[in-house]
Design a protein that fits this description.
alpha/beta, Oxidized Rhodanese, domain 1, 2 domains, globular, disordered N terminus
Length: 178
């Protein structure tokens, strides 16, 4: 065998091994595990939305609503001191909801606030757009808030599942309490 053929064979061998390693890295077990986690998160969100009877809104859709000055009530369902006070979506009001499911109103879980307090925040217009969010997709505080708004007869309730993390991730400005 001449040196040129040997060198060419070695180069082809390195190429094949390199491609196999790249394919394994791309399709390796971590990629598959990540996909299972994405699926679980997506199905969980879908089931919460179906159970709550509300809609969802994306980060860009919420930003467009705010930019268009749409008459929408935006509610941050995170704790005041730990989250809302430091950063929230511009114009958002705060009303605490728990992470765990809240099928019956529980003032211990809402910072001492009653269902009447929540109704007062939502206002008398049952057709007003109401958007509720929390920290991030896996957080279910916004699910509880949206489900309760829906139970109270509000007809245009939206959950913003990405929450303040997605808002900041998109590079949009946040507000802080003064």
């Amino acid at each position: 065998m001449n040196a040129k053929k040997v060198l060419c064979g070695i180069m082809v061998g390195f190429f094949v091994v390199g491609m196999s390693a790249s394919a394994f890295a791309f399709f390796g077990p971590d990629k598959f595990k990540a996909e299972v986690e994405k699926e679980q998160g997506a199905v969980k969100l879908l089931r919460e939305v179906q159970q709550g009877g509300y809609g969802i809104v994306t980060t860009d859709e919420l930003k467009a609503m705010i930019d268009a000055k749409k008459d929408a009530l935006i509610i941050d369902t995170m704790p005041y001191e730990d989250s809302y006070k430091k950063n929230h979506v511009p114009g958002a009001k705060q009303f605490l909801f728990p992470i765990a499911a809240m099928p019956q109103w529980d003032t211990k879980e809402t910072g001492g606030k009653t269902v009447e307090d929540f109704k007062a925040l939502l206002g008398p217009d049952k057709d007003r757009v109401i958007v509720l969010y929390c920290g991030f997709v896996k957080c279910t505080r916004s699910h509880n808030g949206a489900a309760w708004a829906q139970k109270l007869g509000y007809t245009h309730v939206l959950r913003y599942p990405g929450g303040v993390f997605a808002w900041k991730g998109a590079g949009y400005p946040v507000e802080a309490e003064k």
